[in-house]
Design goal:
The chain has 21 helices and 6 strands. The chain has 474 residues and is mainly alpha-helical. Helix 2 runs antiparallel to helix 3 and helix 5 packs parallel to helix 15.
Length: 474
């Protein structure tokens, strides 16, 4: 459901419903010209909607009094500069309060959760995890008019195709009678109800679990919403009773290049490579599995099974899937995860990601675009750069990686032992005593470098560097 949501940057920021602080910004002023243009747009869109089967009375009732929403314009135009580190995300996603509230909701809805689990073959804890992350168990799922929000997005132009598709779907939902325009409320970008369905996902997966003739994912009684989330997961192949992930231990010397979400292998394959569970126990066999490093080689290694991928169908983010799965575990009584995160090496902000892409491409590692979005091509470029530098090829974009790439771009990158050994050999061959070619730039080597630099009229700083390496033919 939330693949489209992610593509359109919908709903509650970052991954799956945990609202992040929004920097104070001036409200977008709606000018008279903008208002008039919106009225013209509504009349034109009315014709489109009617041509797609929406009754005129349904359209007119839904759009009665609808104006441009300045809040939607402000939030849609806002481009978050910094990403939230996964460890901070998980602190909020699986906070003691969220766990306690989830256990309370499980106790209050025990019979319902068992009934949903039996009907759809989806473990109750994952449904509770989604409910907890998407709307804090129904305590807040947005109070904006879905019609007004989507109409504003469709008129504004940047997401016209997506917003129009969702708007037509919302009108079909109204026409079917599942909800009234007044009660069709949601997030500023159109995600609705306890489990934050967008309108097209509602049409495809929402169910009338109560049997009252309406699929009401907004009701205080969350039966339809929770059953709809379970139906979504079931339709995407959820396997009852199987875990979504496991924390694993990697052997020394493993090639991080192979650790990514697309490299799915049988448990026996990973076991043959020396991978075990974090406590040293053998790996369980839940079918083909991948190993991901959500914070790079210095962070934890997570083995992801089939159900992890199903959660990612709901929201295509590793942090979200891990948050949902672990929150569900905690609600069912499991203890907290103890994971070591590289908190001294923050993820990159949007502008920094674009800089990274520009510099990698300039170095010959093509990222296939400079957009600040680190997709598969950018990750591949990062891994290739890391491999050429003898670094763990984990594809993780961090502040330290950007520093290293920037150094490579400017020719100030620290040299590896083999490169220093080459400089030592080359200097000695030219009559500058650099000592043994041991890859260690000690006083003798630095003195030889300085002597060579003076001989060629360069500043004699005595430092091994990429320009020096190149000057010596390396």
């Amino acid at each position: 459901m939330r693949k489209a949501l992610a593509a359109a940057a919908l709903a509650l920021s970052l991954a799956g419903g945990i609202a992040l602080p929004i920097a104070a910004q001036e409200e977008v002023a709606i000018t008279a010209a903008m208002a008039q243009d919106f009225e013209r747009w509504k009349r034109a869109f009315r014709a489109e909607a009617l041509a797609q089967g929406i009754a005129s009375q349904v359209y007119d009732a839904a759009f009665a009094g609808v104006t441009l929403d300045p809040k939607v314009l402000r939030l849609d135009r806002r481009q978050p500069e910094f990403s939230r580190p996964i460890w901070k995300y998980l602190e909020s996603a699986v906070s003691p309060t969220r766990v306690a509230n989830g256990r309370e909701k499980l106790a209050e809805n025990a019979e319902l959760m068992v009934a949903i689990e039996r009907r759809y073959g989806v473990d109750r804890q994952v449904v509770l995890g989604i409910w907890g992350l998407e709307s804090a168990y129904g305590s807040f799922y947005g109070d904006d008019s879905v019609i007004r929000s989507l109409a504003t997005l469709a008129h504004d132009g940047r997401r016209e195709k997506f917003a129009k598709e969702q708007l037509i779907a919302a009108l079909r939902i109204l026409q079917r009678g599942d909800i009234s325009p007044e009660r069709m409320r949601g997030s500023w970008a159109g995600a609705m109800g306890h489990t934050q369905f967008i309108p097209t996902s509602f049409e495809a997966y929402a169910v009338d679990f109560t049997g009252d003739g309406r699929r009401d994912i907004w009701a205080d009684d969350a039966q339809d919403a929770l059953a709809s989330a379970a139906n979504y997961l079931a339709r995407h192949g959820w396997r009852l009773g199987q875990p979504a992930y496991a924390v694993v231990r990697l052997p020394a010397g493993i090639d991080y290049f192979d650790l990514n979400a697309s490299n799915k292998q049988p448990a026996r394959y990973w076991a043959s490579r020396g991978v075990t569970l974090a406590n040293g126990a053998p790996l369980p066999d839940h079918g083909d599995a991948a190993i991901v490093m959500p914070a790079g080689a210095r962070g934890p290694a997570i083995m992801t099974f089939h159900n992890f991928g199903v959660i990612r169908k709901y929201n295509n983010a590793t942090s979200y899937a891990l948050g949902v799965a672990h929150l569900g575990e905690r609600i069912m009584g499991a203890g907290p995860l103890t994971l070591a995160w590289p908190t001294d090496d923050r993820p990159l902000g949007r502008t920094e990601r674009k800089t990274l892409q520009e510099q990698l491409t300039a170095l010959g590692f093509d990222t296939d675009g400079i957009d600040g979005i680190l997709g598969p091509n950018s990750r591949k470029a990062i891994r290739a750069f890391q491999r050429t530098r003898g670094l763990p090829a984990d594809g993780y974009a961090s502040e330290k990686l950007l520093t290293r790439v920037s150094q490579a771009t400017s020719g100030t990158e620290p040299l590896r032992a083999g490169q220093i050994a080459y400089i030592q050999s080359a200097l000695s061959a030219r009559g500058f005593d650099a000592g043994p070619a041991d890859g260690v730039a000690g006083p003798r080597t630095r003195a030889a470098i300085a002597a060579f630099q003076r001989a060629v009229g360069a500043p004699a700083d005595g430092q091994p560097s990429i320009p020096l390496l190149r000057a010596l033919g390396g």
